[in-house]
């Protein structure tokens, strides 16, 4: 299997910004959020099961999953959250592992918000954490997702603590600055890590390092 760098961080930390920068360097990205959307696409068996359980209220006018509506329900109801996780997590994990096994890239960035919570670090050769303060997390995620503050707080509470996440990190990118201020610094770190991962992948997986 390809060399796997697990990229994780709390909600609002900037994982997408970082993964996009790796993608610009030609790195293959396997994103759990994209896979999660694919397994519940319009007409999929899993979406039908979700509608059977929660009703039509979690669908958009186009009959697609309204993720915000579903989030408002499950993150304020532990039993419903558990039901949904038990339905989706095995399917998402199986699809992600399939993509990792099929990859022929020198290394991949595997973006998983709940990498640590779902005990997926065992599938990684290295863990990269995008780190941000809880205060900035809350402000960013509330503004971006147009969700209630209480919902975002519940999501943060369901994730591992700031300290525990960092304890799993082999590499850390700090993202506490405003995007326009922090982006140049993040770009520099991503480029340095890209070189590092190519070297590690060549050494450990015997891949061919691009010229």
Characterize the structure shown.
- The protein has helices at residues 15-24, 32-38, 45-54, 67-74, 78-102, 134-145, 149-158, 162-167, 179-205, and strands at residues 3-8, 28-31, 107-111, 126-131, 171-174.
- With 211 residues, the protein is α/β, with parallel strands linked by helices.
- The protein folds into 2 domains: 1-28 and 107-202, Rossmann fold; 34-102, no CATH class.
- The chain contains 9 helices and 5 strands; from the N terminus they run βαβααααββαααβα.
- Its EC number is 2.7.1.24.
Summarize the structure.
The protein has 211 residues and is α/β, with parallel strands linked by helices. The chain is built from nine helices and five strands, in the order βαβααααββαααβα. The relative contact order is 0.21.
């Amino acid at each position: 299997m390809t060399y796997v760098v697990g990229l994780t961080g709390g909600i609002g930390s900037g994982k997408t910004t970082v993964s996009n920068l790796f993608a610009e360097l030609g790195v293959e990205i396997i994103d759990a959020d994209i896979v999660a959307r694919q397994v519940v696409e319009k007409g999929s068996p899993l979406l039908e099961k979700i509608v059977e359980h929660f009703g039509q209220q979690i669908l958009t006018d186009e009959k697609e999953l309204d993720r915000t509506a579903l989030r408002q329900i499950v993150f304020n109801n532990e039993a419903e959250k558990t039901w949904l996780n038990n339905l989706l997590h095995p399917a998402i994990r199986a699809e992600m592992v399939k993509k990792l096994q099929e990859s022929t890239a020198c290394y991949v960035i595997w973006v998983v918000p709940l990498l640590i919570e779902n005990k997926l670090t065992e599938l990684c050769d290295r863990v990269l954490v995008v780190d941000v303060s809880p205060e900035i997390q809350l402000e960013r995620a509330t503004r971006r997702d147009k969700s209630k503050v209480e919902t975002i707080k519940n999501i943060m509470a369901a994730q591992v603590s700031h300290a525990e996440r960092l304890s799993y990190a082999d590499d850390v990118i700090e993202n506490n600055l405003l995007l326009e201020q922090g982006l140049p610094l993040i770009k520099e770190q991503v480029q340095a890590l890209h070189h590092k991962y190519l070297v590690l992948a060549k050494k450990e997986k015997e891949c061919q390092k691009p010229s």
